[in-house]
Amino acid sequence: MLRSQRLFYLLGWLLLGSLPLIAQPKLITTFPTRGFCIAAPRPAGVDAFVKFIHEELAPRQVNVLILRVDWNYQFEKHPELRDSIALSKADVKKLVKACKDHNIRLIPQINLLGHQSWAGTVYALLRVYPQFDETPHVKMPEKYEWPNADGLYCKSYCPLHPEVHSVVFSLIDEICDAFETNAFHAGMDEVFYLGDDKCPRCGGRDKAELFAGEVRTLRDHLAQKNRELWIWGDRLLDGKTTGMGMWEASFNNTYRAIDMIPKDVMICDWHYERPDKTAVLFAMKGLRVATAPWRNPQVGAAQVADMANFRKDATPETRENYQGIVQTVWSDAENFLKGYYAKKDDPKYNKDENTPWNCFKTVFAK
C-alpha cells in the first residue's frame, strides 16, 4: 500500500472513530410490548388499582396489562367456579375504562392445564369437577412439603378429557367478553403432571404432543373470535440441556412442543435469577416473545438491554418477534401496592432491593 493510501485510510479511521465525540444520533428503541402482569385486585381494591393505572402505569407508557383473574370473577355461565369474593362485571368495567383511557391492552388470565392446585388447596375447576383431574390417585396432603414422594407441585387437568373444554371454552369466552379484549393469557407454566402413566386417556402418550395439542386447542378456539393466545414459555425450553432446571424450563420433555405450536401464539419468557437469553430461541423459531422479569432490578435492567440489542441486531424477518418486556408480580395487587407506596408497617419491607416494585421501577426507567 502506498504511503498516501495509508494516510488516507488512517485519516478515515480517525474521523470515524471520533464521530461519537462529534455527533452521533441517539439510538431510540421502542418495544411493541411494554407489559405489566399482576393478580387482578379484589373488589375492595379496584379503585386503588384504577388509580395505579392512571398515575403509574400510564406515565410509564405501559401498553399491556395482564391481570391474573383465575376464579376472581363472578362467572354467570359457571357460577359454581367463582371465588367467594369475586369481581363483578361493574368492577371489571372500571378496569376496562381505565385501560381504554390510556390505550392499554387489557388481557385476562386464567391458569389452564397446570396450576389447578397450590400447596394443600385444590382450586375451583378440579374441586367442582374432580373427574378432570389428570392424577386423581395423588391425594392432597394435610401438610404440603416439597419435594415429596408423589412429585406433587400443582395439579393439572387432563387435556384429553372429553368434557373439560366445554367448561374451559365457556370461561374463556365469558371473561374475554367482560374484559372487552382481543387476547387471553392461558398461563400453562410449570406443568409437571402431564401424560401420567395412570391416566386412561394420556398414559403413554408423548408429553410434547399433549402440551402442543392443548396449546393448539386453546389457540384455535380463540381464533374463531379473532383473539390471540398468550402463554408462559418455560415448558418450551429444555431444562436439562440448558441447565436452566425444572422450573424455568422443562424436565418432562415438553420442550419439543416449540416446533408443534402455531406461530401466532405469544410467548412470555420468564427468567428471574439470571438474564437467560432464550428470547433468541423463540424469535428464531418464528414466535413473538416478551422477556419477563420479576423482583431482581439488576436482572430486569439486563433483560431490557438484551431485548433492545436483540431488536437492533436482528434481521428484518425476526425483529418484530422480539416484542419487549412484561414485568411480573406474584403477590396479590394489594400487597404490591403497599410495597410500591411504602405503606407496610415492617421497616424492613422496603430496604430489600430485590422486590417486584423496585424491579418494576428499574425496568421502566430503562
TrEMBL record:
Family annotation (SUPFAM superfamilies): (Trans)glycosidases
Domain Glycoside hydrolase family 20 catalytic span(s) in chain numbering: 84-293
Keyword S-adenosyl-L-methionine (UniProt): no
InterPro entries registered for this protein in UniProt: Beta_hexosaminidase_sua/sub, GH, Glyco_hydro_20_cat
UniProt keyword Hydrolase present: yes
Reactions that this protein is recorded to catalyse: Hydrolysis of terminal non-reducing N-acetyl-D-hexosamine residues in N-acetyl-beta-D-hexosaminides
Gene Ontology biological process terms from the UniProt entry: carbohydrate metabolic process; glycosaminoglycan metabolic process
Gene Ontology CC terms, in alphabetical order: membrane
Family that this chain belongs to: Belongs to the glycosyl hydrolase 20 family.
Entry protein name: beta-N-acetylhexosaminidase
Annotated source species: Chryseolinea soli
